[in-house]
Structure formats: structure tokens, C-alpha cells
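task queued by scheduler; priority normal; single chain, no ligands, no partner chains; default sampling; output format set to C-alpha cells
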Amino acid sequence: MGYTIAVAGKGGTGKTTISALLVRLLKEKKLGSILAVDADPNSNLGEALGVQINDTVGGILDKIAVNPESVPQGMTKDRFLEYQVQSAVYEGQGFDLLSMGRPEGSGCYCYVNNVLRNVIGKLVNDYDYIVIDNEAGLEHLSRRTTRSADVLLAVSDATVVGLKAAGRIAEIVKELNIKIKRELLLINRWDQDIENEKIKKLNFEYIGNVPVDKEISAISLNGNSVWELTANAIGIDALRKIGEKIWQTN
């Protein structure tokens, strides 16, 4: 299995932008093949990476769970689901992208969810690095994508609410028995150090902060991708300096 970085945080902290920037930096460093997984139902990672997504895993599950006869004769449901998921992977230049989405139908998803976990497990084995943009509840990390990660990167802003959300993420990891090797905290849109006592209470390894970046704010406002940022943009430069703390493998 590749080196998995699961990014989580409450809405509005910029976790999707951070996830996209990590993909850009991993590509920049030429560390190996990259799979970006958009596991947030809001599905904004594709936009941040400049990718138009047509199929989501949630949509695939709908078709199979709600309409089981959609599986072609002579093909098992397992094989059909595997084929559909692989077909939904966007193959880009230097990275691939899979959008999870969320099923909307009223069918029974128990079986297909179990099969899906195996399919995703096989898929991530084909990549050196996997960056997962999660919703705060880590739904896909716990139930559909994988039950483990090398790094859980909690992204917070410099607010009490943001830090409390990061703390809740750590609690969810324990409650769901998700196997995480390292739990890291990144403060986004902030240019000062946070008081150590507040960080210690969260039981995260604080790796630093990414200051407010007008370039990043502009692309977010206009719906542009992180590839349009200049190489020396403040946010990229800050994340580049602390990136080794995120994807170190020793």
C-alpha cells in the first residue's frame, strides 16, 4: 500500500486547498505516482486540481444497489464494481483522481460497501502516494476507503471552533479504531505560532502554519486550480518548507 495522507478538518478551514497543494508538491518533488481521493461529499478537490469529474463512486453504488440487474450477465457484482471504479479514475498528468461522492438512492448498500472497500484497497496499492480529502467525520476513511493511514493531517484555522473540530477528529479516530501512524496539526491562514498548551490538549504533533495568501484566496474565489499559483506563492512556499514533516516515511 502506498503512503497515505488523510486530510481532515471542519468546513471553511481550507483543507481541500491544502490537499490540492500537497498533490502539487508531491508531483513537483517527483516522489512517485499519486492518487488524489476526493472523499468529501462537497466534491471540490477536482475543481482545486483543475479536473472535471463526471463519475463518482457514490453514483456507481447507486446504479448497482438500486438497480442490481444493471450488472451484465456473466460478470460478478464484485468484478463489475471493480471495473466501474477503475473507469471512474481520472488519469491526469502526474496524478490520478477518484471522487467518492455519496450514494443518494434508497437501495441496500451493505454488500456493495464491503466490496468497495476491497476494490479501493487494491487500487491504492498501485500508487506510491495517496492524498485523501476527507470530510470532518472521516466517513470514507473508516467505512469505504481504508481503515488506516500513515498520516492524519488535521487542518484548522486559528479559532477555538477550528481547534475543537481538530480535537473531535482525533476522538473519531480512536472511536472508530482507525489505524493512524502519525497525527499532525496544520494551522491554515495564520502567520503566528499557537500557544503550546492549546496544542498539547489536542494530542497532535503541531507541524506549523500556512499564512494568508492573496493568490490562494483569489483562485478559491474564482474557482481556479492550484496549478495557476506561481511557484513562489506564499502558501506554496510555506507548505513546501513543512512538507517533509508530512510525507516523511522513516
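post-processing summary
- The beta strands are 3-8, 34-39, 90-91, 96-99, 129-134, 148-156, 179-188, 205-210.
- The two ends are 15 Å apart (CA to CA).
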